[in-house]
Amino acid sequence: MRVVLRIFKGLALLVILVAISGGAWLSVSPPELLKVGNGYAAKIVCSNVFIAGRDPDDVLYDDVQAPGNPLLRLLRVEVDRDSGRVTSRFMGLFAPNYALYRSAFGCTSVPDGDFDAAAKAVPLLPAPRVGQNDAVWPDGEGVDQAAGNAKIATLLADARLAGPAMRAMVVVQDGRIIAESYGPGFSASTPLVGWSMTKTVNAALIGRLMMSGKISYDDTHLLPQWANDPRAEIKLSDLMGMESGLAFNEDYGAVADVTRMLYLDPDMVSLPASAPLVAVPGTDFHYSSGTALLLSRIWMNKAGDPRAALDYPRDALFGPLGMTSAVFEADERGTFAGSSYLYATGRDWARFGQFLLQDGVWNGQRLLPEGFVAMMRTPTASSGGQYTQGQAWLSGPGGGTSAEFGLPQDTFWLQGHDGQTVAIVPSANLVFVRMGLTPSWLGYRPQVILKEILSTLQSAKAG
Description:
alpha+beta, Beta-lactamase, 2 domains, five-stranded antiparallel beta sheet, four-stranded antiparallel beta sheet, 14 strands, 14% strand
């Protein structure tokens, strides 16, 4: 019996020693993967609490833990509403990472914990609010009841067609909302993250600058870091088509360039700006969120002084389009995260889609150069016809041509992580927004419901 007790005591001591050693290791030198996880959790909770007004526990569970790596379930998040600070720690103790709410500029990751510097990087401006204008959409938030289509509404109510964890769907035809639907806990006034749909909006901001002659497709010597370097010959058009030739690891399964950029680096531009050239610019398609950050920094440098650059999205695009809910988030140093972080309501995402449908013209005023939207619909040769010269997609989510799904050939897409899509169908004068928390591994394809919508409208027209 004494031998057994000694064994148990020895095992207990060993467990304690291992726990102490593990705790010391996690405290002194935690794995970067834990820092990335905590950075992701802090940022997502921060944005959804302060921009979308959601409950932090719901966001942590639904948006961070439920669809992700099992280790994410061990993260614990603290929200300080008074200071706007959010902290996430593994098991509530280790590898802390942070986010900070900055009002009009939403939330930013603060991986170095320097909240003061992060607060000073952008001006303190009032946060945008969803417009209260009762005019009929798109001029306001009112919906033309006469334009409503009961058959389309029935399609949106079909859970099989809507897909898992749908949060917003909006169908616009002939410039009017004909049907919309929202998931439990979400509404027409809930701002939702577009993830990589932000890239296309970022490209439109470049188009706005082109109208004033401050930037052009053929521009080279785009960043001071590339002076006296072969990268100085990269053209703006190479970046717009994801053909820069720069190395960038977009694998989200581990600590890759993209996760390091978003959650470990206070200056997100620094990583892609220092990336080596691995292919001849203009010859090789390589999807890269780093490229979108470079584009943000480039147009911000061209827009004027730092304050003018920070004001530019609202002055040049969101204001004219009436996208009153739009919050374009910036990194800790003040560069817009043009790869990922634009929040807007489903109706405001539909406004942007309608803007592209109208060839960059709004209320009779041309806001994008002639041919710019056509460029957004023109494929790059190196992408095999999938990606366009203007940060948009011709293939729908999950791949496949429009013809494979019976969709019109002129359909093009904005696409974002976890099921964010805007489809633009010029030949049908239609825009379709579908947003949610629908990871790609679930296999959901919004092309199916879009085909049903178009078929229903076509049948009604023929009848």
